[in-house]
Structure formats: C-alpha cells, structure tokens
Amino acid sequence: MPTALKILVAGGFGVGKTTMVGSVSEVPPLETEERITEASFGIDDLAGVEGKTSTTVAMDFGRITISPQLVLYLFGTPGQDRFWFMWDDLALGALGAVVLADTRRLDASFASVDFFEERQIPFAVGVNCFDGRRESTSQDVRSALALDPSTPVILCDVRDRNSSKTVLLALLEAARAQAFARMSPMAGR
Amino acid sequence: MPEAPWFDEEGAGRHVRPYAITGGRTRHSQHAFALITLVVTRSLDDVGHGPLEPESAEILELCRDRAVAVAEIAAHLDLPVSVVKVLCGDLLNSSLILVQSPPDESEKPSVELIERVMDAIRQL
User: Fold this and answer.
1) Closest CA to B101 of B89, B117, B83
2) ipTM above 0.90, yes or no
3) Is A172 close to B114, i.e. CB distance below 8 A?
4) Beta carbons of A55 and B81 less than 8 Å apart
5) Which domain holds residue A63?
6) Is pLDDT of A129 > 70?
7) The pTM is what?
8) Chain A residues in contact with B75 (beta carbon < 8 A)
9) Higher model confidence: residue A52 or residue A180?
10) Closest by alpha carbon to B28, among A83, A61, A92, A40?
11) What residues of B are in contact with residue A104 (Cβ under 8 Å)?
12) Is residue B56 in a domain?
C-alpha cells in the first residue's frame, strides 16, 4: 500500500497556481471542494466571520507518481484566505510549500509566508514573471516579504515545466537542509 | 469584495443533496481521513456485501486498480471531500477498503525520502 505526500502551492487569486500544478502533474488538474466547519479548525478563532460556522474552500490539485510506494500530490491553495490556515488537514503530510508571488500584489503572499514560517514548513517563493516581465529582482522580493536568508526566491514562468521543476527543486533543497539540521541538532548551537 | 467568493449560488445549492447521501452526516464518528489518505478496494472474491449507495459503489470501482487519494475520489465523483470521507468511513467499517494515512506532523520527512522525491522531479 503506497503512502501519499503533498506539496502546497499557495498564492493569491490568478497568480498561476493551477498552471503550475498542471505543468508538472501527470494528470490534468483536478478540482474539488471541502466544507470546513468550525469544529474542523485547529484553532478557535473565527474573528471577523460574524457568526459564520462553516465555509467552503475550493482546491485544485495534480499528481506525480514517484514510485509504486510513493505518490506526490500538488495542491493549489488560495493563500490569501486565512480560513485555509486554520485547517489542520492542509499541512498534513506536506513536504513543503511553494508560495507563488506576483510582484504587483506581494501583499497577497503575506498570509502564506507567515503561516509556513510559524509552522516551520519549508517553502520557496516563486515569482511568476508573466510574459517574461522581470521588473523585480529576487532580492527586492526577499526584502519586501522579509524572508529568512535560507528561503529560496526563484524567478519563474510556471507555464514552463522546467521552470516549475526548478521552483519545486529549490523548495525540496530547503526541505532537505531542514531535515539535515534535524539530524544534527548540535549544528544550530 | 475583490476576490472571487468561495461559493456562488450554484455551488451552494449543490451541497443539499450530497449530505443526503450520508444521512446528513458531515463527518464520520470513528474515522478521520485526510485529503491525501489513500484508499484501495479490497479484493472480495469470497466476501459478499449488502446493497451499497451508488456513490459508495463508485468509490469501490474507482479504487480497484490503484490507490486513490480522498481528494481525488471527491474530484472524480464531483462530491465535497467531507461527503467522501463519511462514505469511506462506512466502507472501512464494512472492511471493503484498505486505507493508508499520510505521516502526521510529528513524523518529519527524512533526507532520504526528500531526495527520492527530488530525483523523481528531475526526471519529469
């Protein structure tokens, strides 16, 4: 019986999450939805929701079969919505995350960055450069998002499979570094 | 609101019937499934079972040849994930499926596991 892992692709509306999932998935992106009720949340904080006890979140995802024993799912998560981040299922089995950023709307990435930093989930920031526009450098994005030096920032075009692969590999490299650090706890002292 | 809402009138209406399939249950009382919990139909050449809801029969059909994640089942059946979780809980109680949960958050991935995934991504 195989085991499944996931990589989250978080980012604001229209930033290219589904495109990125589709560029590397072995199946066309699938779509489903989940009704998340108050009891499903990890923390009891519904401030600003005015008595609403459930919400529906849509997600799309793809699949990469790593081996007969291991399947990787990529989940596009609408990262500007805090509801997502109250949901424990989101991070379950997650190797890490890609935060897709649009330099015109970097504020849409703040919630995702906060969440992954707090939960110590390794992540990489992919700056999706539509139409080859590269107005910002990775250093600008790093400063604007106040990222840790260990967090990779990659300029990418998620329509291109190789470019998406580069972002995923940067994330996995960060995850591997974190795993190494766990193996040698003295290293950080 | 600048962003698209999570559900529109049409989407909201679709919820009415799916929960009728589960007898109104929005969660299973005994089993917790994750989005990427994998489901495989048990080969039951010699074990019979009573009549099933059509949706449950579809799940058994879908998961016969390979392990399928709960989210994938939901997408294929066009049902909310929570409905699929309830149906899978019932199928598990009836011993009609095998399931594999993802590692929980305390089980951090090993270097070896991460490298195996990296190798596979490089070869895409």
Assistant:
1) B89
2) no
3) yes
4) no
5) 3-188
6) yes
7) 0.86
8) 30-32, 61
9) A180
10) A40
11) none
12) yes
Which residues, at least 6 apart from A89, have a Cβ–Cβ distance to it below 8 Å? A40, B34, B35
Give the whole-angstrom CA distance, residue A115 versus residue A94.
13
B18 exposure class (CB count in 10 Å sphere: 0-12, 13-18, 19+): buried
The pLDDT of B2-12, averaged and rounded, is 51
Task: Tell me which chain A residues have a C-beta less than 8 angstroms from the C-beta of B40.
Answer: 1
Residue A182: CA count within 13 A, CB half-sphere: 14
- Residue of B12, B100, B114 lying closest to A175 (CB–CB): B114
Q: Which domain holds residue B21?
A: 9-122
Q: What is the DSSP string of A82-104?
A: HHHHTBGGGTTTEEEEEEEE-GG
Please check whether residue B107 lies inside any domain of the structure: yes
Structural domains of chain B, count: 1
- State how far residue A167 is from chain B, nearest Cα, in angstroms: 11
Count the helix, strand and coil residues of chain B and give each as a percent rounded to the nearest 5.
Answer: 40, 10, 50
Provide the number of structural domains found in chain A.
Answer: 1
CB half-sphere exposure, A113, CA atoms < 13 A: 22
Using CA atoms, how far apart are residues A184 and A186, in angstroms rounded to an integer?
5
Distance from CA of A99 to the nearest CA of B (A): 18
**CATH, residue A80:** 3.40.50.300
Render pLDDT for A164-174 as a digit per residue (tens, 0 to 9): 999 999 999 99
- Compare CB distances from A58 to B6, B40, B116 and report the shortest one's residue: B6
B61 within some domain: yes
